[in-house]
Each structure stands twice: as C-alpha cells, then as structure tokens.
Amino acid sequence: MSPALNLAVIGTNWITNSFVQSAHESKRFTLTAVYSRKIDTASKFIDETPSIANASAVKTYDDLDALLADASVDVVYIASPNSLHYDHTLKALNAGKNVIVEKPFASNIRELNELFRVADAKDLWLLEAYRHIQEPNFLKLRDLLNDPAKKNEKFGPIYGASVNMAVYSSRYAKVLEGEEPNVLSLQFSGGSLWDMGCYPIMFTQALFGKPASQSYYPVIIRTGVDGGGHIVLQYDAKSSNQKDTFTVHAHTSKIYTSTAPTEIYCEKGTIRINGATGVTDINTVEFVPRGSKEAEQLADTNPEYTGLLNLTWEAKELGRIIVEKDRKTEASLRSLSRDVLEVMEDLRRQNGIVFAAER
Ligand SMILES: NC(=O)c1ccc[n+]([C@@H]2O[C@H](COP(=O)([O-])OP(=O)(O)OC[C@H]3O[C@@H](n4cnc5c(N)ncnc54)[C@H](OP(=O)(O)O)[C@@H]3O)[C@@H](O)[C@H]2O)c1
C-alpha cells in the first residue's frame, strides 16, 4: 500500500474522534494536525484518541490559516457545524488542500457547486463523508439490486420501500430546556432533515437514483428547524434506475425514536434491513420470500471492521480514491452528493425552512 496521507482535522467533537480512529485503522491516513478554536481542546482531543501512535508528533493549531499553511498536511477532514462547511472547505481548497467534508456537504446547492468549481480549478480532491454507502452490507445489497438479471430472478419488480433513520437526540432535551444547540438551529444549518434525513435519502438515491418528485411533512420545533417527519420519494420507470414505479417512505427524527426496520417491498418478497442506527451500521440484510416466514440472510454478518461507528470502510475508500487518483469514482460520488442535496434543498424549501446562510 502507498504511504499514508497526512491528515488534519477541523472540529473536535466525538465524530472526529471516531473518524480519526477509523482513518488509522484503514491505514490510509496518519493524523498530523488538529485545529480547534482553543489549543487546550486540541490537546485534549489528542489525549483522548487512543489510535494516535506518537501524540507529541501531532501539531495543534488555534489559527485556521496557520493549519492550512502547514505544508505537511495532505488532506483536511472537516467536521464543523453544517453552516461552516462551506467557509472551511473553501479556505482549505484555496490553500491547496484536499478535503473530506462531513455530511451534509453544504447548506445548499449553490454553495456545493462553488466548492466543486474551486476543487476542479485547483485539481484537488473533494469528497463527502457518508459512511453507510461504503459499508459492505450496503454494497452487497446495491450490487444485487443493480444487476437487472439477479434482481429480476430473486426479487422481481420493486413496489415500494420504507427507510428509517429516527433517533431521539439528547440535544432535543436541551431545546426543551430553552437552549439552541447547533444541530437544531437555523443559524448552523441544523434540523432533522439536514442531520438525519440525509441518511435515508442518500441510502435511497444510492440504490434507486434520483426520484421524479419528493415531499416532506415535518414537525417544526421551537427553534424553527424540523425536529423530524415523513419524506415521500416517488419513482417512475424513467427516474428509477430499477425501471420500476414505486414510492419510498423515508422517516427521519431527532425528537423520537423509530424501532422499525428498513424494508424494500418486491414482487417476490420483502428485503428487511437492520442497522444499529437506522440505515447505518447495517448488521443484517434478510430476504423473506412472499408467503414464507423464513428469512434468508444476504449480508455478511462477520464484517472485517468492528470498531466504533463502522467509519473504517468510508475512510478506506475515500483514502483509496485520493491515493489511486480515481477520478471516476470521485465523479460518481459527487454526482450522488449533488442529487441528494438538490432533493434535500427542495424538501426544505417546500416547508419554508430558511437557514441563516441564505438570509
Ligand atoms: N458521519 C456521522 O456519523 C456523523 C455523526 C455526527 C456528526 N456528523 C457531522 O459532523 C459535523 C459536526 O457535527 P457535531 O454535532 O459534532 O457539531 P458541533 O458539536 O456543533 O460542532 C463540531 C465542532 O465544531 C466546532 N464548533 C462548534 N461550534 C462552533 C462555532 N459556533 N463556531 C466554530 N466552530 C464551532 C467545535 O470544535 P472546537 O471547539 O474544537 O473548535 C466542535 O467540536 C456535522 O456536519 C454533522 O452532520 C456526522
């Protein structure tokens, strides 16, 4: 394998900790620098990341320009609040750095198009960190559905799907106490659609393509964002890469939890998908043939990586794309990211949810 890429991180919450540990596990990256608004926070982050082999070699910065001027940094991973992704990514690209940005890429499609433009003009790598579409059990399902012969023989036409990602957030409790955490704030491009709904939408579009039309029925909470709701994605033979006509019901929430599995309804039976959290960390993909109670396991139940949040597959693949200069895969991931953000932006606008980034 080629030498590991030197990684710098922006944002020091638990997701960055998970990503760095997974990035180390993937052997594609070595953490070399941490940016935080406070040096003490950056140092604490390093202390609390057990996969760092040599803590004294990792540099800490509280000046973003200084981090981005560090010539040893190859790739910057950005896990700041959503509203800051655009500025942080633009700065990193303008400093000549490759960038991996946490989901969702940006507050709107206008920002995303500009980031793609700058990355292309500078011949840099720019990728969005969606972990669930890199998990082997997801890829196995996608390969089965996207091979017309296999799909028709085993499943037949698709008639519908119910895709779930609804988990109560302790940060909603803070809203009830009168606070406004970033993830549930219009100021920081928060809300359930942007934080959680992006997962079922990405899952659906990675399997079936861009819907012909979409709608969203949210519960708006005190801070003005959507706390959760029901998304309807409609496919017809033209829009669906499955050439079927069907409707997907996607469920997102940060104000209550759904324990329902994700299901895909086909002529010959039902595909049932269980993840540790909705459509992420997929443990089982079962097929229950029509009229049967017996489920056939389609997933690999003994995955290679077991750590933390299953981010290792994502880190491994994003690192591979950059090291192997795989522009084809980058372009297809970017196209998926753009299609998903377009749908999300439309759902948000239909409901009059306006982020501060747009006022
Ligand atoms: N892939 C996943 O499974 C997953 C899971 C969770 C979150 N995420 C994504 O990760 C990103 C971060 O989410 P989060 O919940 O960790 O966000 P957050 O706690 O609001 O902020 C993340 C980090 O950004 C910095 N920050 C916070 N408020 C800021 C402000 N007002 N101005 C500048 N910097 C600020 C902080 O780092 P410093 O104090 O060190 O500056 C903080 O640790 C989001 O895009 C989210 O969608 C992804």
UniProtKB/TrEMBL annotation:
SUPFAM superfamilies: Glyceraldehyde-3-phosphate dehydrogenase-like, C-terminal domain, NAD(P)-binding Rossmann-fold domains. Belongs to the Gfo/Idh/MocA family. InterPro entries: Gfo/Idh/MocA-like_OxRdtase_N, GFO_IDH_MocA-like_dom, NAD(P)-bd_dom_sf. It holds the Pfam family GFO_IDH_MocA. One of its GO terms (molecular function) is nucleotide binding. Residues 169-272 form the GFO/IDH/MocA-like oxidoreductase domain. This is Uncharacterized protein. It comes from Coniella lustricola. Residues 6-125 form the Gfo/Idh/MocA-like oxidoreductase N-terminal domain. It comes from the Eukaryota.
